[in-house]
Design brief:
It is built from five helices and eight strands; from the N terminus they run αβαβαβαβαββββ. It has 179 residues and is of the alpha/beta class. The chain has a single domain, classed as 3-Layer(aba) Sandwich (Rossmann fold). Strand 2, helix 3 and strand 3 form a beta-alpha-beta unit. The chain starts with 25 loop residues before the first helix and ends with a strand. This is 16S rRNA (Guanine(966)-N(2))-methyltransferase RsmD. It holds the Pfam family Cons_hypoth95. Its EC number is 2.1.1.171. InterPro entries: DNA_methylase_N6_adenine_CS (IPR002052), RNA_MeTrfase_RsmD (IPR004398), SAM-dependent_MTases_sf (IPR029063).
Length: 179
């Protein structure tokens, strides 16, 4: 696995061995960012189920200003820290070592891009988006990128958001919501 494009493009990323995380493949990661960008002029990104941190690192590599990564698994946290160190831009990243539910009670400010790839997709994505919106954590022009198994059918609308784009890549489905 590697950073696909941008300032850190081509740099290798570590992933967690085993089945506790499902790293987004380079092909799907490239496709996601081509759908939503592919490059950014600043902004703040939230990666609520970070795994290896590769999606948030890709977002920073492509021009986002700062990222908050949330991960509860200790082994995954160690991988994220190694991957962030590889960027040599550690100040742009903040790792919250806790589960998403706890993080959602502690987050402040607004996010321009939210990456959601939870283990139990549909129920958690709907609840997470609703809570983020209720807490005023989402910028007006926010993009919500949800990665799920291709069999998962997310609702057409969640809170004040509707599906903008949706594509299937192999076993993964990417759904992007906007206001």
């Amino acid at each position: 696995m590697r950073v696909v494009a941008g300032d850190f493009g081509g740099r290798p990323l570590k992933t967690l061995e085993g089945k506790t995380t499902r790293p987004t493949t380079d092909k799907v990661k490239g496709a996601i960012f081509n759908m939503i960008g592919p490059f950014f002029d600043g902004g703040r990104v939230l990666d609520l189920f970070s795994g290896s941190g590769s999606l948030a690192i890709e977002a920073i590599s492509r021009g986002m200003s700062s990222a908050v990564l949330v991960e509860k698994d200790r082994r995954a946290q160690a991988i994220i820290q190694q991957n962030i160190k590889m960027t040599k831009s550690e100040k742009q990243f903040q790792l919250l070592k806790m589960d998403a539910a706890r993080a959602l009670t502690q987050l402040t400010g607004q996010f321009d891009l939210v990456l959601l790839d939870p283990p139990y997709a549909k129920e958690q994505i709907v609840a997470n988006i609703t809570q983020l919106e209720e807490q005023g954590l989402l910028a007006e022009e926010v993009m919500l990128v949800c990665e799920t198994d291709k069999a998962v059918d997310l609702p057409e609308e969640i809170s004040n958001f509707g599906i903008w784009k949706q594509k299937t890549y192999g076993i993964s489905k990417v759904t992007v919501y906007v206001r």
